[in-house]
Write a structure and sequence with these properties.
12 strands, 1 helix
Length: about 130
């Protein structure tokens, strides 16, 4: 009887789980790109109020910038800590134009959250993410 009750509770819990979406707002934005076969330096930090939606239950990351961006997560690659005490998660993604890239969600040791979007010819970073 105990096993049946536990199984029912687990089943009900599983069925009631909904996809969790985490929504952030970025405070700053910067980018760099390939110019004459070399990476440029990062641009200055531009103030931003860009909203970022991360729904890993549905494998979708959306960035609501001037040109909205939608990324489908095709593979979760890894989570690791670096020598500076920050933590980072990496995801292989495909954008709305079917270009392949990597999105990195990074939490600095001081608590600052950044989202990097990396492609072969351009990279941008959203910084100062605050959960809304």
């Amino acid at each position: 009887m105990k096993k049946i009750l536990i199984t029912l509770v687990c089943l009900c819990s599983f069925l009631s789980v909904q996809s969790q979406t985490i929504i952030y707002q970025a405070s700053y934005f910067a980018y760099k790109y390939i110019d004459n076969e070399r990476w440029t330096d990062w641009t200055k930090w531009y103030p931003s109020k860009i909203t970022i939606s991360i729904n890993l239950s549905d494998d979708i990351i959306k960035i609501y910038s001037e040109e909205p961006q939608t990324y489908v997560v095709t593979k979760y690659t890894r989570t690791f800590s670096d020598k500076d005490g920050g933590k980072q998660s990496e995801y292989r993604v495909i954008d709305q134009d079917y270009d392949k890239g990597i999105i990195r969600l990074r939490i600095e040791s001081n608590g600052t959250i950044q989202l990097y979007v990396d492609f072969s010819n351009v990279m941008w970073v959203y910084s100062g993410l605050k959960r809304i």
